[in-house]
Amino acid sequence: MEIDKAIRESDDTRLKTKYSNAVYVITRALALYSIEEVAFSFNGGKDSTVLLHLLRAGYFLHRGEQNCPNGVLTDFPIRTIYFESASAFPEINSFTYDIAKTYGMQMDIIRSDFKSGLETLLKAKPIRAIFLGVRIGDPTAVGQEQFSPSSPGWPSFMRVNPILDWSYRDVWAFLLTCKVQYCSLYDQGYTSIGSIYDTVPNSLLSISNTSSKEKFKPAYLLPDGRLERAGRVKKISSSNGTRLPAVNNGPDSVDSHRNWMFTASVIGVGDEILFGTVEDQLGPSLCRKLHSIGWLTSQTAVVRNDIDSVAEEIERCKSTNDMVFLYGGVGPLHSDVTSAGVAKAFGVRLAPDEEFEEYLRHLIGDHCTGDRNEMAQLPEGITELLHHEKLPVPLIKCQNVIVLSATNATELDKQWDCLIELTGSDGCLVTTEPYSSKRLTTNLTDVETAQPLSKLCLEFPDLYIGCFRESRQGPLVISFEGKDLARIQAALESLCKKFHPEAFSEVN
Ligand SMILES: Cc1cc2nc3c(=O)[nH]c(=O)nc-3n(C[C@H](O)[C@H](O)[C@H](O)COP(=O)(O)O)c2cc1C
Ligand SMILES: Nc1ncnc2c1ncn2[C@@H]1O[C@H](COP(=O)(O)OP(=O)(O)OP(=O)(O)O)[C@@H](O)[C@H]1O
Ligand SMILES: [Mg+2]
């Protein structure tokens, strides 16, 4: 069988492993379901094309050589379904039909949407499992495994994803090693193909030339598989996980983000901070940064390098704050439990993240002796990687929890600036009206000031009125924090009126 032979003769060990794992999934599925009970969802895309040849190889190995004369598989025995759409590229459409002819595929063409098309098909045919070319980086792969039952609300069948763990590089290594035909669009700079309305060639493959028509390199030359979908027109993402404001700051501010009061919680992970052997710089710095964008830090905490401690703290904070920031405990060491804590708090497992692995590969290169796949374990199904060109590794966002990998104040400054750039516009870490503050000092005693101050707090519930002393004998400092300077001034005046004129002086 030519595919099996090409892989066996290749010296790409990674590809061999990916191939044998995928073929194993296919042969397991063919052992579990009869040939009438399986179908292949084929759309002429590169991932589907890989899967077609893996299925041919898998079927060949499943049946044994004696059933395929001279090691040649004449007809493709698995029912194939193609959802044809008017918005598909004509090149994709004709490639799909041509390939079906070349390999003798029995193709059911469905012209309705996926769900109702499958409902009709499954009523008519005994199909129980469908092979798909879904890969872990695809938006639809979230939460899937190699065998995943269809989602609630969908007709019931098993989704079989033999190439779930394949990377962009693996796909091209396979297609080129096996020298199989693929859709011509991939030689014109397209790297992932959706509809004609949402797909353009990947600009990272553009060849600058002086003529009017832009030219592109082939898809297999994309140096960085993470940017496979750069040719897809972006859908506007909603700021998932961001709750409505915790506190509303006045009647005329309801529809303006700038006046919303957002709250955050800051959690440090580090035994050393708790031992007192390392000074925590990041927590206070984060509080200042949040304050500078008009956010309120409702709480900071430092927890042990222990999964349960991290998870419990996140669980406590994530539902009562707009955002939760985590720092410390990020990396591949035994003490780096932050990702596991996040996963536990959200009740998901940790799974290798292919995209993150690519970043680590770029960063660590060949110096790494460990399994990068293991190092790139992130909470499954809830992780969003926030890329910024200035950061070597993306920031990790799991719903409203952001994991910062900074280890010192300089790194934090950089990550923070990138974070603001990345998330400031989508409502997730929106900059709101900054706080104004004023301070008064007084030599009045606590007893004298206590009651008037309590009354003042009731009069000005929109302000934070706090008191502290720098020493027991020194003056009392009264601080006023709020978003409306006029209200602060009014509070100050109201307090001063309650005492003799020289009782207070304003300080910076
Ligand atoms: C054979 C097949 C089975 C599918 N099964 C499911 C499913 O069980 N649950 C689901 O949410 N979507 C399912 N989908 C839909 C895909 O997850 C996804 O929405 C679809 O491929 C559209 O992707 P696009 O928005 O990138 O075009 C299925 C699609 C196909 C072709
Ligand atoms: N119109 C369709 N008809 C049949 N199957 C489809 C269709 N669209 C998607 N699929 C299934 O979903 C899988 C994932 O689709 P996806 O678009 O991510 O990959 P692809 O089209 O194979 O490659 P590419 O990422 O280059 O577009 C396909 O491999 C195929 O199994
Ligand atoms: Mg596609």
From TrEMBL:
Residues of the MoaB/Mog domain: 265-439
CDD domains reported for this sequence: FAD_synthase
Enzyme Commission code: 2.7.7.2
GO molecular function: ATP binding; FMN adenylyltransferase activity
One GO term of the biological process aspect: FAD biosynthetic process
Range of residues in the leader sequence: none
Pathway membership, UniProt: Cofactor biosynthesis; FAD biosynthesis; FAD from FMN: step 1/1
Family matches, as Pfam families: MoCF_biosynth, PAPS_reduct
Keywords: ATP-binding, FAD, Flavoprotein, FMN, Nucleotide-binding, Nucleotidyltransferase, Transferase
Record's catalysed reaction(s): FMN + ATP + H(+) = FAD + diphosphate
Protein name, as recorded: FAD synthase
Source organism of the structure: Herrania umbratica
